[in-house]
Design brief:
Elements (H helix, E strand, L loop, with lengths): L1 E3 L6 E6 L18 E5 L4 E4 H4 L4 E2 L9 E4 L9 E2 L6 E2 L3 E4 L4 E4 H4 L4 E2 L8 E4 L25 E3 L8 E3 H4 L22 H6 L14 H24 L7
Antiparallel strand pairs: 1-2, 2-3, 3-4, 5-6, 6-9, 7-8, 9-10, 11-12, 12-13, 13-14
Amino acid sequence: MEYKHFSHQHNLNIYKVQQGQICRCHGCQSLCHDSIYACWACDFFLHEHCGNATRYVNHPAHPLHPLILIPSPTYCSGSFVCNACGEIGNAFSYCCALCEIDLHLNCAFMPPKVSHKAHQHELVVSVGSPDRKGAPEFCKICTKELNSKNWSYCCLKPECDFRVHTFCATSEVKPGLYQGDDPDSEIPEPNSAATEANGNQPKPAPPKPSDPAAELLELQLQMQMAQQLAQMMASFNLSQFV
């Protein structure tokens, strides 16, 4: 059975990875196991969940705009820094070009809640760390410093003060999240408990565009035109008019 993916020029076939074979997914850059989509002429492989990932998601971590799935970074460097885990990526990503939000495909589908043997309570993914007035915070599993700009998993019980890197907490991927109205898929906002205690209601998110793919394409064209204009102005020699 053949399958056509928007990121590759050839049709892909379902293939069962055999023991000892090394195939790396072009979507998430991790090794493939079990069933994959394959183009052997190009050594192009995709996990099933990477090949079936939807073109955009309404992710609760960025409610302002849909995140669009792109097969390669649009930055000049050819790479991006994932807002979730903080690691560099150069393959598939979910992005918002308007806000410069970039997520690894797997990071976009991390489970909202996980259990870990290092802690007795359930851990919830958080898109921001509390303000500690400049004091560094360290992962309770690997003991390395946590970046407050990146996501983490934490225990919601204040007496625990347990927070860890996303990649320390889990490697699980839950394809299909954020396609419906599943309340378990919601990501709590930082300081949400304090907001509720003060009686303040969160601001409603603005309406989603009806065609996010078209919006992204239009934005990319505008950015390209702006870059070309900037290059023309930089190369323009004003000295001839002096």
